[in-house]
């Protein structure tokens, strides 16, 4: 097994302390630790994951600084005004679908554990409609993907936050009725925080990404039909609702 980049005890000490001292003064005082033990290590992990993605999902390669999500929280529409996230995260959307909500891969590392995910998390209305319309004729293919041994072994069963009844405009008696009710198309695999300390951390993440790659490819077929204008219109409606 190859040795790969990983995180340190100082990484988790910082994140644990940040949960209790989530303010700008403390963060600025400890920013050198953030830069060395969190940001630099995360960028190394992302670079190593990119090498793996090149072998099974080259359309998702992304420069490490763009893949890494900011630790600064967007508090504009939140009652929680703490300025920092208490985890590290990165995502790899499909190239060309970044602005339309394409499916992709996601990694989160925090003191409460590691989350490895893939798919489309809480897609907007146009994305959901595109997926549902595609499922009318391709639900058997999706069921096979979800039942594949690597998926059932490495990921939790799909939760999907389903609707209680068929979405408007879709047949309630269709063979894909249970899938049409799904609202979130992401599969999740969870690892203990200690997994991020090991030399084989990137191996573990890449194994899960590869197992979930067929789902990502499946979802991106219908999601590629959503236009930026449709996404912006949907996002605008959600922001107005949140802001009220």
List the defining traits of the structure above.
244 residues; 9 helices; 4 strands; globular; disordered C terminus
Folded structure, characterized:
This protein is of the alpha+beta class and 244 residues long. 49% of the residues lie in helices and 12% in strands. The protein is built from nine helices and four strands. The protein has helices at 9-20, 24-29, 31-56, 64-67, 125-147, 149-154, 177-180, 201-223, 228-243, and strands spanning 87-93, 104-110, 113-120, 185-191. The protein has a four-stranded antiparallel β-sheet. β2 and β3 form a beta hairpin. The radius of gyration is 19 Å and the shape is globular. Mean pLDDT is 92; it is low at 236-244.
| Global morphology | globular
Distance N terminus to C terminus?
A: 53 Å
Total strands: the figure is: 4
Q: Averaged pLDDT, please?
A: 92
- Helix/strand-derived class? alpha+beta
- Percent of residues in beta strands: 5-15%
The helix count comes to: 9
Radius of gyration: 19 Å
* Poorly predicted regions: 236-244
How do the helices and strands follow one another from N- to C-terminus? HHHHEEEHHHEHH
